[in-house]
């Protein structure tokens, strides 16, 4: 058989490769004809449901007890309650259904067969399960508020508490006061035009509403990617603080294998390489003072508050999620696309389109991305926790950044000794957050609302100021003028 | 003329007049140029037929390179179309085809 010339001989084209291995029989029961192909393996409908439930339990249950992967032959005993982060999307709809079936309604079909009916595994695990939804519609004019629809959907599940939040709560001192029983402050601002990100107090005369503060903060960000990643980060932090407020030891998110692969690749390309581990799974200790990770390990106390963030669908692809939702008759509300042209320039959107296209022709690649990331260990030690995103900061990252950056100082940078300069936020941020706030692009982000203007001093989210007031010592960096410098070293100068 | 049932889910129905279920009649064979009759009607043809006859807006959200956009799951009589030959799956009378969008993320 000759290779032929495919451009002129259409018959010479190679036959299309099948999307599944061997036969169309189910690889599990080996009797029924398959209904779905999952990464080249064929499953029938009856075997599909136990398979997804098994993957869900396998990703969640080893991390329920305080000591992960410890001996748990008897029962699952979490330290606190459970919070489900719900977005209305496919993944979180499937997650809510699985959590409800496995741990609230105790659906027998989701229970492992071994162990008998009286096995501790069949007891309710979490005393209270809450569902939190963060509405982002107020950012973009004309976007629909889906809170009532989400509330209606959650209400169909008995025994679940619904907590609706709005994205502007991140700048709302009254929300902070409600969630933490301590007064909240949004009086700390930052100058986003300077790379050092000098902090300053926001004058009390500028009494903005939380929504105005949020919109000004977003409008002042330099790129489209910065805006979407900031929104995602704000949602994550709102969920973490809500978990703390509800006494939840676990926060579960509906990221599927596919969306996890997207967020990993997108995160690495935005400078979150040091936080690859946290993107998959993380534990947040809100009461810990920022300090090197080696010292932190030694100080782990028993009564310390923490929230463990788990993505139980991390082994379940979005195709499996769609099949689960369809065959279970779930109503997927869907996440409304942001009515904002800047989304086309966003690294997250571009990564999503790339990975989705890749998954269609090479379904195993997505799984390979996630598996590879589980093996990646970042180099270097953590020197603290980022005040903005609550993830570890790589030690010496600011020094490294200033060493490799090429800057040109313009005459406008002349030192003005009369203007008081606050401490710098830069050293309290991780590399990705610092880049998000400062890295400019040749294509600036299109405005999401023409009525919102940029500001030189923008208020920071409500969880940032308390972290500064708690610090005993705050370093202040200020450039000295030549005259002042001369006065300081005057005694040591030799006469000419 | 095979009559088939088509259903849209996961937000795709918004592109099709917000109507989830459609009963449609298709020609026996794909209309071909010249005198020769075309191939029997298959899903590849159905996708283009839906684009040209039922789709109301934003075709790029449904069709890409003459197939469905990546992220749309297709079930033929409750079975993944990858098991049925994808676009080459020949349609029969009363077949039920479901298009489910998975593009709504986590």
TrEMBL record, chain A:
Residues 282-304 are annotated as: Disordered. Pathway: tRNA modification; 5-methoxycarbonylmethyl-2-thiouridine-tRNA biosynthesis. Keywords: Cytoplasm, tRNA processing. Its main location: cytoplasm. GO terms for biological process: protein urmylation; tRNA wobble position uridine thiolation. Transmembrane segments: none annotated. GO terms for molecular function: nucleotidyltransferase activity; sulfurtransferase activity; tRNA binding. It is found in: Cytoplasm. GO terms for cellular component: cytosol. Plays a central role in 2-thiolation of mcm(5)S(2)U at tRNA wobble positions of tRNA(Lys), tRNA(Glu) and tRNA(Gln). May act by forming a heterodimer with NCS6 that ligates sulfur from thiocarboxylated URM1 onto the uridine of tRNAs at wobble position. Prior mcm(5) tRNA modification by the elongator complex is required for 2-thiolation. May also be involved in protein urmylation. PANTHER family: CYTOPLASMIC TRNA 2-THIOLATION PROTEIN 2. Belongs to the CTU2/NCS2 family. This is Cytoplasmic tRNA 2-thiolation protein 2. It comes from Wolfiporia cocos (strain MD-104) (Brown rot fungus).
TrEMBL record, chain B:
There is a cross-link at residue 106 (Glycyl lysine isopeptide (Gly-Lys) (interchain with K-? in acceptor proteins)). CDD domains: Ubl_Urm1. One of its GO terms (biological process) is tRNA wobble uridine modification. This is Ubiquitin-related modifier 1. InterPro entries: Beta-grasp_dom_sf (IPR012675), Mopterin_synth/thiamin_S_b (IPR016155), Urm1 (IPR015221). Keywords: Cytoplasm, Isopeptide bond, tRNA processing, Ubl conjugation pathway. The lineage of its organism: Eukaryota, Fungi, Dikarya, Basidiomycota, Agaricomycotina. GO terms for cellular component: cytosol. HAMAP family: Urm1. Belongs to the URM1 family. The modification 1-thioglycine is found at residue 106. Acts as a sulfur carrier required for 2-thiolation of mcm(5)S(2)U at tRNA wobble positions of cytosolic tRNA(Lys), tRNA(Glu) and tRNA(Gln). Serves as sulfur donor in tRNA 2-thiolation reaction by being thiocarboxylated (-COSH) at its C-terminus by the MOCS3 homolog UBA4. The sulfur is then transferred to tRNA to form 2-thiolation of mcm(5)S(2)U. Prior mcm(5) tRNA modification by the elongator complex is required for 2-thiolation. Also acts as a ubiquitin-like protein (UBL) that is covalently conjugated via an isopeptide bond to lysine residues of target proteins such as AHP1. It is found in: Cytoplasm. Pathway: tRNA modification; 5-methoxycarbonylmethyl-2-thiouridine-tRNA biosynthesis.
